[in-house]
Amino acid sequence: MQKDFVEYTYDRVIFTEEMRKEYTIIAPTMLPLHFTLLGEVFRRHGYNMVMLDNEEKSAVDTGVCYVHNDACYPAICVIGQLMEALLSGKYDVHKTAVLITQTGGGCRASNYISMLRKALARAGLEFVPILSLNIAGLEKQPGFRLDLPIIKELMQCVLYGDLLMSLRNQCLVREVHKGETEALTEKWLADLSDMMARGQKYKDVKATMYRIAADYAKIERGPEVVRVGIVGEIYVKYSPLGNNKLERFMHREGAETVVPGLLDFCFYCVYNNVLDNRLYGMRRYSKTVWKIASKYLMDKKRDMIAAAESAGFFMTSSYEHLLEIADRYGIVGMGMKMGEGWLLATEMLELCSMGVKNIVCTQPFGCLPNHIVGKGMMRPVKEAFPEANIVAIDYDPGASRINQDNRLKLMLANAKL
After folding, report:
1. Phi–psi pair at 39, nearest 5 degrees
2. d(CA 109, CA 21)
3. What is the pLDDT of residues 114-140, one digit of tens each?
4. Domain limits of the chain?
């Protein structure tokens, strides 16, 4: 018991170029489809990357052992996933580094690395290097760099992942021949993994998106079913570990899930820098770069929408329309960027405007920003769209799974086609 009160010291371990050649890098997974492809890009550029795929409660239990249970729930999940892997004996801990994302914004996610260093020290693994995946220039390591070619290839993975996720969800519950959708998804995931391992030009990516949509269009589908949008804090919105496999639960209940893509969050992060300049006069020297990056993502989203619509599918709207919705309803100011900020409330409005009136708002119990811009904005959204059927679900190590499932079933009982 006394060990719990020891004051640990932990220094930053440098990840060198030599380590890059010898070390295995393990990283937590948030979106299985996307992160499978992201791993291929890193391996192509010389990193021995392993994406961890444990989605079971054991990872959360391990996280609670090393992170205070009042901390951010996603931190408990991802640090638990990493610590479980390091302690499993599967990896040589003296030749292993860990990779974790870092936003740099006003969120506890910016402190995950400090929490992880403390967890490693408590386990006697303080020698394990920690790599930060960010575009804000934080926690630089000489042996790990994100240059422009890698970033562009990672964006290609996000495009493919978002398209696969959306088309899979639109076919899975309505497929006439059971198992056809999952088989096609696995087939395309394998093909895309090979493509990303070799590298692709964007014209080939664009053509491939049309081929993917055409293949999914061949799946015979039954009548329309209840559609449920999923929004919320980025990790628990997407991660099967973080949201107790929410999408699979909805599919078992016969609902089609509509999940805004990861590219939308990327656009939100980039466009906030444009807003900083417009609203506060910040980013005076980099504003042109951020405007170019925003336009780049806008163009890519339009290409993805065109590919999906060419085969009769739908996607969430273009970023121009998303910004127009945010401005038209104005329930959250565009300067609000703590947590998922203006994006979360705008996604709820966007889904309602598309006819998806049933929405699950996922949030970590202790995430104050997302309680404000998520649960706190449910009433204004319902005032704008009286037919909206929205439920907020809290996720936490101590949250009752039965209570979560019952609240979801109650929402589905009131669901509207």
Report:
1. -60, -35
2. 29
3. 889 999 999 999 999 999 887 766 778
4. 2-143, 225-260+316-413
Residue 188 is given by DSSP the state: H
3-state class of 260 per DSSP? coil
Question: What is the pLDDT averaged over residues 199-215?
Answer: 96
Structure tokens at 380: 């204004």
Q: By the 8 A CB rule, do 218 and 65 touch?
A: no
**The dihedral sign for the CA sequence 114, 120, 122, 125:** negative
Q: What DSSP designation does 110 have?
A: G
Bridge-based pairing of strands 24-28 and 96-101 is: parallel
Distance CA 307, CA 323 (A): 22
Query: What CA–CA distance (Å, rounded) separates 92 from 324?
Result: 51
Q: Which residues are bridge partners to 130 per DSSP?
A: 98
Count the neighbouring beta carbons within 10 Å of the beta carbon of residue 193: 17
pTM (2 decimals)?
A: 0.93
In the predicted model, is pLDDT for residue 169 greater than 90? yes
Give the model's confidence band at 398: pLDDT under 50 very low, under 70 low, under 90 confident, else very high: confident
Q: Does domain 225-260+316-413 have CATH number 3.30.230?
A: no
C-alpha dihedral over 278, 273, 261, 63, to 10 degrees?
Answer: -140
Residue 153 vs residues 32, 189, 202, 234, 236: alpha-carbon distances, Å? 17, 16, 9, 21, 25
Cα 162 from Cα 382, distance rounded (Å): 27
In one-letter notation, the amino acid at residue 228 is V
Looking at domain 2-143, its CATH class is alpha beta
> Whose structure tokens read 């693994």?
125
Q: What is the pLDDT of residues 84-98, one digit of tens each?
A: 999 999 999 999 999
Determine the Cα–Cα distance for residues 343 and 371; give it in Å rounded to an integer: 13
pLDDT value at position 106? 67
pLDDT at 174 over 90: yes
In the block, tokens 């192509």 appear at 44
Q: What is the pLDDT of residue 71?
A: 80
Rounded to 10 degrees, the C-alpha dihedral 69/70/72/78 comes to -10
Q: pLDDT by residue (tens digit) across 137-167? A: 677 889 998 888 999 999 999 999 999 999 9
Give mean pLDDT, residues 57-75. 89
